[in-house]
Design a protein that fits this description.
3 copies of one chain form a homotrimer. The first copy, chain A, has 4 helices and 39 strands. Chain A has 341 residues and is an alpha/beta fold.
Chain lengths: 341, 341, 341
């Protein structure tokens, strides 16, 4: 929907600097934007990009230092402004399903909130409940007694097994599986007897799960994804794991059974954490780190097996010099032989 | 369903020690259980947990050493007892589909066994067969001529392509794909020409496949998952791989094309095995191990590139001391210079 | 369909050597083939296998050096001949859906090409288009305004979100997700605010995507998979990545946000590439390589953190000798002490 720059500024309680008559009909990256498009910078450290953008206006934080020959809207928080503006400029950007499609199969005693949307071929099993304004795309499966909160968006082809608890404002991307059985066997004479997995999964408010994520149900008790934690694509969360609030788990990482991860932990891509460990609050692990023991809060980790990053860097630097070290030791040995004579 | 402890003891041929009148209506972990719940320990090495549990009874192995002020049921095999008790205390725990839903699409010449369950929107292509008592959840696809044995459970959103052979008592979790094309191309002048993948996949009896597992069909001949092998979530099995019986493959591991893996091999999480290798029986590889050559039976492997674990441990310990080694060599060099003078 | 060897030779413009009367009714690997089956060797370096095969005939390149007591068909390019012969000998090998199943849900203004096939329960949202001869298997979801080209095959349970552009002759295997949101948040006071992902995904002609692959949409602008690039199972492509043409990306590899990968790049399995890097044309990275900085064209990489392969090999060899190096340094220290006295 087309809006004048000055009207957008008013809508987001921003301060317009420059001419507000430009018509805005799109949003784009500051490097990619053209005429009629609005761009954003999230921090004044990117302010030099304002000079070269072809956008018709830029939303900026209030601490911009220089002045530019470009209409700006100054706001307290450009990322919040960004989300608000998308909703008025591009209201139909994401074509969420609307209403309840006649092909859905909903158990009689399922509890459906107000204003929900169920796309074609959605299945809701008995005892399940869906909170107000929640949207389920086609081919989603919601198992028996599973509760999904309000204002959630579940994309196509998501499987949520029985007895799972999902909070409000949770986003789950396609292909993801919540509540599959934990990987547990009792080995008897070299054969593996399945240990029933009787627990549940709890996904707290404001969690986002990427595509093709797998979160196993607990053996007993629960697997927990803490409030506000964001999980990228193809991540594995094993049974009985607890992830604290506000973690960021990058793609293809995996956390093994019963490990407790604190709050605001950040894992790079392809990180692995072994089972039954405690990872403290605010721990950060670089990509591909392999964590095989517990670490206290605020440790920054890298490498395999994981070490505090300063130690890891020393070791990696040393390793790079190893071939030369061998030469130096050989030279010492020769010298010693000579001296010995 | 509620049962008295003494009736449960009788049902599983266990020996009741203590008062058998307590009513049991649930099952839980020994640390989590409360009044009315039954707990289990699988080995006497956990017997100290009996002292602190709030469970109304505990199922234990017969070699318990101490006595406890808590009703116990002694059995030969607590894990088998556990599975049996679940079926009487929590008979509807897993709400498997029942019967054949009217929305399923089954080819006329498909062969459906007795007492099978096909959830909504299941598709069975022509020439396929489903064995007695097998359950398919919604959105499962069974390709042309694929045979699925008896007593299998296939969870929602599983794709089983054409010409796949699946044994009895196989469990497949959601999002898994069996029989996708192997990754094979013939490169001609820097472009890649697809090599048709004409083979099949054979999944033997008692296999369990986790969520979002991918098992590619062979180029010719077959990809094989041996009897009783258990595969965790997000594992990749490439074309023409053979996995022997009773392997355990943890999450996010991958096995490259044409590699032959023996029986009872155990791979930790995120292990990779290169193509065309032979991995002997009872090999164990720690998490994140990268295996680039063949290893004989019973080797325990770790690290990248994989080494026998004793060697890997020596190397990893040495690496940790590398920065100090550089100092020691520098000190030696200084000393030699001095002596040389 | 059964054909005489001599008729197959004529069909593919090959030169028959030996008796052409054998009836061929199948195709198999040279080691597995039996009577009535045709086998192939793609290069004369495998010609010794011709001596031992039980196939009724072998398709070979023209530069075969020895003569064999076996009917051969000599061709310029056995892999192209292979694909052609499959189409006549095994015309119904892959049982693609045919026609438009009555259960599909197609938006009124969607644009369907000629001779397309939509299997049961396919969903095509408004503004989407499907090119001539393209086949969609059951449970595929095609989002709003997404364009799919001609002669594509999309296997079951694939999710293609809104505004995605897919070229001609693209193959997408089951469980794959194209156009999920990029993993982008703005962290404010330790909580993560979602940054809307407004961009698209472009999949160029002749791309093949394996099973359970995830390709995220760009934040702005586009994520691009270049013409002829082939991606194996369980691979992650993050937002704003550009992959050049004719790359080969093996299973479980991941490429982080905004990284630009050149043409004909080859990644082994479980490779990771960090964000915002440039990887030159024809770069090759061995399995499990962790790439944390940019590398120029034609570099061959290995290890974690990635190094040029010659350097990596030197280092890995040195590491293997480290425990002995410690002994050598200790011996030197002892010797020096002795000399010092």
């Amino acid at each position: 929907m087309q809006k004048k720059l000055k009207d957008i500024a008013k809508f987001i309680n921003g301060e317009l600097v420059g001419n507000g008559e430009a018509l805005i009909n799109g949003i784009n990256g500051i490097n990619e934007a053209g005429k009629g498009e609005l761009a954003f910078i999230l921090s004044s450290k990117y302010e030099d990009l304002i000079g070269s953008t072809k956008a018709s206006g830029v939303v900026v934080p209030r601490d911009i230092k220089k002045s530019f020959n470009k209409p700006l809207i100054m706001v307290d928080n450009p990322s919040i402004a960004f989300s608000k503006i998308i909703n008025i400029i591009l209201p139909d950007r994401i074509p969420h399903p609307k209403g309840i499609h006649p092909s859905v199969i909903v158990a009689k005693n399922a509890d459906l909130g107000n204003n929900i949307a169920l796309g074609p071929y959605v299945i809701i099993e008995k005892g399940a409940s869906i909170g107000d304004n929640t949207i389920l795309y086609p081919f989603c499966y919601v198992g028996k007694n599973t509760k999904i909160g309000k204002n959630c968006v579940i994309y196509p082809n998501v499987t949520i097994r029985e007895e799972v608890l999902i909070g409000d404002r949770v986003i789950i991307h396609s292909g993801t599986v919540v509540g599959s059985d934990g990987f547990g066997y009792d080995t008897q004479n070299s054969t593996h007897v399945k240990i029933p997995q009787l627990g549940v999964v709890v996904i707290e408010d404001d969690v986002e799960l990427g595509a093709c994520v797998t979160i196993d149900r607990a053996r007993f008790s629960k697997t927990v994804i803490g409030k506000g934690t964001k999980i990228d694509n193809l991540v594995q969360i094993a049974h009985n794991v607890t992830l604290g609030p506000n973690c960021l788990i990058a793609a293809q990482s995996g956390i093994s059974g019963s490990t407790k991860v604190g709050r605001n932990v950040v894992l790079g891509g392809q990180v692995g954490i072994a089972d039954h460990l405690k990872i403290g609050d605010f721990v950060v692990a670089g990509a591909k780190t392999g964590i095989s023991k517990s670490f206290p809060a605020k440790t920054v980790l890298f490498w395999y097996p994981a070490k505090p990053v300063d130690k890891a860097r020393d070791i990696i630097a040393s390793i790079g010099l190893l071939p030369k070290l061998f030469e130096r030791v050989r030279a010492l040995e020769d010298k010693i032989k000579e001296l010995d004579k």
